[in-house]
Amino acid sequence: MKISGASLLCSLAWVINACGSAASYDYALPPPGFEEPPLLARIPGILAGEASHADPSRLRVDLVWFPVSHTEGKVQTSQNVTLQQLGWGHFEVHISKEPPTNAIEGAQMMRYAQAEVVLYEDVNDNKVLDVLDPGKPAPDRVLGRAHGMRVWWLGEGSPAPDNQRGYSPVQEGWSFTYGPIVAEPDIRDCEPNREDGTWKPTCRGRSIKVPAQDVSSQSNGFTLTQSQDPRLQSYACRGFWGTSPDKSDEWDDTTPGWNSPEVREKICNPETCDENVRGDKLDVPVKGRNVRIECSADQSTYFWKDCEPDPDLCGTIFCHYGRGTRNPEQVKPSDWPDCSK
User: I want to staple 11 with a disulfide (CB 3.0 to 4.6 A). Which of 56, 68, 100, 239 is the partner?
Assistant: First the structure.
């Protein structure tokens, strides 16, 4: 069942006010002498997606901060924010706290942090998304996220150049970027490079189709989409990697910091999946895996991918992107994959 952004927003706010008036998630009256913390940043958004049958009084939004570079011991951290209703499906996320100390990292003269925006049902009503160790039952239900969106905080250093928008902060302090969104490459973009005689494919894995945008000043901001996808629950599991730098749910199996030979051997042949050990062997799927292979019209180039979740990282999905090329004027190698499958 689909639900409009306006209907969802009304369901969030009805407990304290009629739809169309201002509301936030801070339902309890403040104690005497309480001073509202200063507003550090705000970003507009639109609610959309599917009905979740959640308790509307316990629907909340959190920032989930992820490590800039993944290494052992680095995990995500949640941070509560408020959601201010603007009426008819529109809202603003209000941020009143700096990122958690353990979310801030330094890299090349920079101190910065990155987060994703998630929607959840605060089942135990403690006003924060509880992130627990793998195997422990999560008390909260993660119901949605702002797909493709990054929240950035830059405390020290230079903002990203135009060609790095979406991968780094775009201004000092707080910034918000949408994208880049990636798509599978068109096999026609993977033709061999015949100019230098190497016959290597010109494409490299996936192609960025939509450039990153700074959405801080855009009128509609971002879209917070509610979903029934059970994989969203991984955001409440300590050790999940979130989405990749390309805003995909899938991480490349060559990503620095990932070390799981058991999972990787399921999706790539150890003797062929690394270019430095491949030699004359073709990079083909592991025997017994159900993998779709795409080929160019003259069957001079093929492309495939195989993915597997890592249970030790809360189901973070890793993929191997296989490809190969040959000179169509020569005899097809005996181990050339069957492109008809």
Answer: 56
